[in-house]
Specification:
Helix content is 49%, strand content 15%. The protein is an alpha/beta fold and 346 residues long. It has two domains: 4-212, Alpha-Beta Complex (Spore Coat Polysaccharide Biosynthesis Protein SpsA, Chain A), CATH 3.90.550; 234-342, no CATH class. Strands 1, 2, 3, 4, 5, 6, 7, 8 and 9 form a nine-stranded mixed β-sheet that branches. Helix 11 packs antiparallel against helix 12, helix 11 packs parallel to helix 13 and helix 12 (281-302) crosses helix 14 (323-332). The protein is globular, with a radius of gyration of 20 Å.
Length: 346
């Protein structure tokens, strides 16, 4: 059996598929199978996959007779996979040549961990690099992030196929979007996970991507998953106080001065709790920086607060204690800040 099963679901992906296939073929780690589920494509995807499989016996193509969606397609692939580890990739993204070797070596060296993600370069439809991440996250930080988002994009996921030692990990088919967030939350409930500092994926953002086309649906699912995760580490009172922020974050509310006041108060309570529980002062600084960025994204971008002078003034007043940390957040990750500004009000 191969050490790694690379897993991909694709539907009408011919635009970028050749680059993705070539990036997997170019890996410096060779002990893998490539399980690809063609979800009833009607373009040239099937022909491209057949040609690739004829060249490389490690490629296994499974074809859905009808369109079943990404979640069910990935589960079909997981049921057919045989590797000890699963490495996800999407048909519009690119694996850097050392992706599999670095993630596999890390998991072998850390048998207590059930999964890892990696940093990534964000690229546009033409392959131009828009931003690049390099910050590692330990298990404590990942668990904090799981109140709001997965620790990295889906194509960076690398996890034990049977993290409990016996049962293969499958996606929850109730989620047509944010299925990756739910899966990582369930992995983290089994054992430690982390994000590597290494940049191992080129993650493509374009108008045809699910994260763009179904942003609002994904936000609703993320809110439901995040709320459940928050309840595992915070008191009910603190989670209840975060509801105004969560409504903004999931596009369910528009910023007003009163909503902003309540959202900041909820974050203040969370920060006080988390800084008291943080293992180090570095973790405390990280929590403050992440919380400030979360406030700005939810209120100014998703809640449309930037378009209202009254809301902007309310943010500057109520969140004034967070502004120095927000400045550090922007300086440490300007690409994410710019993305939030571009997406404001959508």
């Amino acid at each position: 059996m191969p050490a790694v099963s690379v897993l991909m679901g694709v539907h009408n992906g011919e635009a970028f598929l050749a680059e993705t296939l070539a990036s997997v073929a170019a890996q410096d780690f060779t002990d893998y199978e490539f399980v690809i589920v063609d979800d009833a494509s009607s373009d040239g995807t099937a022909a491209m996959l057949a040609e690739a499989a004829a060249r490389d016996p490690r490629i296994r193509v499974l074809t859905n007779e009808t369109n079943r969606g990404l979640t069910r397609s990935l589960n079909r692939g997981l049921e057919e996979a045989s590797g000890e580890f699963i490495a996800r990739i999407d048909a519009d993204d690119i694996c850097l040549p050392n992706r599999l070797s670095i993630q596999h070596a890390h998991m072998i060296a850390h048998p207590q961990e059930v999964g890892i993600v990696a940093n990534f370069e964000m690229i546009d439809a033409e392959g131009r690099v828009l931003s690049r991440g390099s910050e590692p996250l330990d298990d404590w930080q990942v668990r904090w992030l799981l109140g709001w988002n997965p620790p990295a994009p889906h194509p960076t996921f690398f996890f034990r196929r049977c993290p409990d030692g016996t049962t293969p990990m499958l996606y929850d088919e109730r989620f047509k979007t944010a299925q990756d967030f739910d899966l990582w939350a369930r992995l983290a409930a089994i054992g430690p996970t982390r994000r590597l500092a290494d940049c191992l994926i080129q993650y493509r953002r374009h108008e045809g991507a699910i994260t763009h086309a179904k942003r609002h649906e994904q936000a609703q699912n993320c809110a439901a998953i995040g709320r459940a995760n928050l309840r595992t580490r915070l008191t009910g009172e603190i989670v209840s106080g975060l509801e105004p922020l969560m409504a903004l974050f999931s596009y369910n509310a528009v910023a007003t001065p009163d909503v902003i006041r309540k959202a900041v108060a909820g974050v203040d309570a969370m920060v006080a709790h988390d800084c008291a529980a943080a293992p180090t002062k570095a973790h405390q600084r990280w929590v403050r920086r992440m919380s400030a960025g979360l406030l700005a994204d939810a209120i100014l971008s998703r809640g449309k607060g930037l378009s209202s002078p009254a809301c902007l003034a309310a943010f500057m007043w109520h969140a004034r204690a967070h502004l120095p940390h927000l400045a550090r957040a922007v300086l440490s990750d300007p690409g994410t800040a710019l993305k939030s500004l571009r997406n404001r009000g959508r």
